[in-house]
From TrEMBL:
The lineage of its organism: Eukaryota, Viridiplantae, Streptophyta, Embryophyta, Tracheophyta. It is found in: Membrane. This is Uncharacterized protein. GO terms for molecular function: glycosyltransferase activity. The chain crosses the membrane at residues 21-39. GO terms for cellular component: membrane. It holds the Pfam family Branch. It comes from the Eukaryota.
């Protein structure tokens, strides 16, 4: 009886024990929401779609027209200034590349209109991602609808940003033969000097007559870096050996995606086919791929290194970058001292622009625009 009783008690205990599958299932159910939240942050992003063939054909048609117009403008029978323009007062074309609101439009309005006589000295073009609804903070001003060019979707870390910049350059070349310099900036950029100061710096106004007598060839302001710890990784982002023979490793360069190009270099960029067929390829390692920071400095370094300064006029703070983005300035940081600091450069010219600023910096910047930013 004792043995039977013990066996019965044991069977009862086994029957009462919960299945180990039940807590496992419960745990998985509890973890599912967390997995859905964390997956985008853990898993690599899906590959972005390549530039489509129809888009490529549209761009090619635009670039060919820009090159053709320039060829006609270079007709020997046509009178020119020393910059290759028929206009005695050459212009600066400002190229805004954006995928969000132009938060600092009022500040740029003040930059351009600080002196009403400036209007004939600049042109303005905006490439806004058509998939993003963009608001203009100063309706009826210089950022009017006719300043927005035909645009296509852009993806960070892909050749679409290069295509957008080339589109802006080609449009500006076609639009006005007086456009002599082409300055690419983003919606996060702000000016650090007045327009007059910038214009005089580019065209060397103080030595203008000397420049004409010597037939001085103006240079493009673009950062060109040949030595960097990440340069090999960037070079192989599309796979080992993919870039050759067009771009050997010793010719590959890095730099800022924002620049000021001369007209001859803008034409060089929109006329290029050889290097573009390599840089437009999708990357195997998106975290190492920033075509907009590689294509322009590589092309110009290979074609005309003496025609480039090797530095940009846009100041960027990379000391505490996050996920490939530079330091972002917020209202508590905005002060006259910051503007003076951002102007400082180790090169011949001081910095003319700076990024990256958060949208809520607009009012603090406007508050000191007249007395600090545009007071040279």
């Amino acid at each position: 009886m004792m043995i039977t009783s013990s066996s019965s008690s044991s069977n009862s205990a086994v029957a009462a024990a919960p299945s180990p599958l039940i807590p496992t299932i419960i745990l998985l159910l509890l973890c599912l929401p967390g997995l859905f939240y964390l997956a985008p942050h853990i898993l690599p992003p899906p590959p972005t779609p390549p530039i489509s063939f129809p888009e490529e054909l549209e761009d090619l048609s635009l670039f060919r027209r820009a090159a053709a117009v320039e060829s006609n403008a270079n007709n020997p029978s046509r009178p020119k200034s020393h910059l290759g323009s028929t206009n005695s007062k050459p212009k600066i074309a400002f190229l805004f590349l954006t995928n969000s609101d132009l938060h600092f439009a009022p500040l740029w309005e003040q930059f351009f209109n600080g002196n009403k006589s400036n209007r004939h000295l600049y042109s303005l073009y905006v490439h806004a991602d058509p998939t993003v609804k963009t608001k203009i903070k100063s309706p009826g001003g210089i950022f009017s609808e006719d300043r927005f060019i035909t645009a296509k979707k852009t993806h960070r870390g892909t050749a679409t940003l290069v295509s957008a910049a080339r589109r802006l350059l080609a449009t500006a070349l076609l639009d006005d033969p007086s456009n002599a310099f082409f300055t690419l900036i983003s919606q996060h950029c702000v000016p650090l000097h007045s327009f007059n100061f910038f214009y005089d710096t580019l065209f060397e106004v103080k030595s203008h007559q000397i420049a004409e007598l010597r037939h001085l060839k103006y240079k493009s302001f673009i950062e060109i870096i040949s030595k960097d710890p990440n340069i090999l990784d960037r070079y192989n982002a599309r796979g080992k050996g993919v870039m050759v023979p067009e771009v050997p490793f010793n010719k590959f360069r890095m730099g800022s995606q924002f620049f000021t190009l001369t007209r001859r270099h803008a034409l060089l960029v929109v006329s290029d086919r050889r290097l573009w067929k390599k840089f437009k390829l999708n990357c195997l390692r998106p975290q190492s791929c920033y075509p907009e920071e590689h294509y322009f400095p590589t092309l110009l370094s290979m074609e005309d290194p003496e025609g480039c300064t090797g530095y940009t006029l846009t100041r960027v703070n990379w000391t505490d970058s996050v996920n490939g983005h530079p330091h972002t300035y917020y209202p508590p940081e905005v002060s006259p001292e910051l503007v003076y600091k951002l102007r400082q450069s180790n090169f011949t010219n001081s910095y003319m622009f700076a990024r990256k600023f958060s949208p809520d910096c607009l009012q603090p910047l406007m508050n000191m625009a007249t007395e600090v930013i545009f007071r040279d």
